[in-house]
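Q: Can someone sanity-check these two? First one:
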Amino acid sequence: MELLPETIRRKGFFYNLEKRGTKALIYKQTDSEDGYVAAYEVFKIKVDQPKVVFGIQLNEREIFPANEDFGKWAWTCPNLERALKKFESGVGEEQDEEIVEESLEEEDDE
């Protein structure tokens, strides 16, 4: 399987791998012109299955999240501390759903 590279250039930013776990990754997002740290991207490891696209064989590979994946299986954090908390929380929707359910219960009590 092909792993995501340690450095990715995308949409005017550099993404440098900060931490790799068994289920998630943290990439530091920096501006490509001045190196300003814009954010940290935390996301679950997703694997795209092998396939043929336009006659080209693509191997099984990790994928970087697209814009529409954020809030589902990828999150942007303003600093490394918040990114690490998200990473260590399991980066799971299950935990997020519990928080949402608790918030709804509190609203019902009012």
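And here is the second, same format, sequence then tokens:
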Amino acid sequence: MAALYKNAPLVHTAFEARFFGDLAIETRRDQFQQLVRADFPKLYVPNTVPGKAPALQPYQFRTEDNSATVNLAVNSFAYSTSRYSGFEAFKVTLEGVWKLFSDFFEVSTFTRLGLRYINHLPIIREEGGSISLSRYVTAKLNIAPGFPSGKIHDLDFTISCEMPGGRLRFLMQNAKREDGLEVLILDLDFARQGPIDKDERPSFIETSHEQIETVFFDLISKEYKEIMKGGT
């Protein structure tokens, strides 16, 4: 998306693999750090969370500018980035860090695989404070006859549905970011539950990206696509 559109709203992309816990990860995490240190030099150790086992909380290895992160816990691996220059470029980096992980730790079966894209569409409110949803998306909230769908002030909507190859969880809500900008969040998380053989991971990534991209571009309004291209 970012490679094709000047004003792409994508702010976060992440791949996650979960698996049955392996204590080898806990005892050899320092050696894995050495493998990724050149590209992910910053280490962030998780704070203690009441009621959650420390080993299940991931250590974070970040790039110097904090734009990308590798998370590692005894039962999960994740790679995420806030700088997305296209799916192929994302896969190259992901596969690079994944090879380091998979060559070092023997994980043959996954309990869950997930690919997630989070988009922030800046909101301009109408006179009177309402959000003209049709300016941003094709979705129509015709909940009931007489429902004033054109006079929405706030929304928080989540749906989970079965799709070919997995399940998509879609969240749409308005929120203010830390920088004060109000945005319409479009959060698409495509996942498959296990058991999943390790050889299925590459095809899952392709399938999940295809499903997410199709839904996203079907959802984005014609008007906002022009904004994404650099129009006004």
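A (reply): Looked at the second one. The longest helix spans residues 201-219. The radius of gyration is 20 Å.
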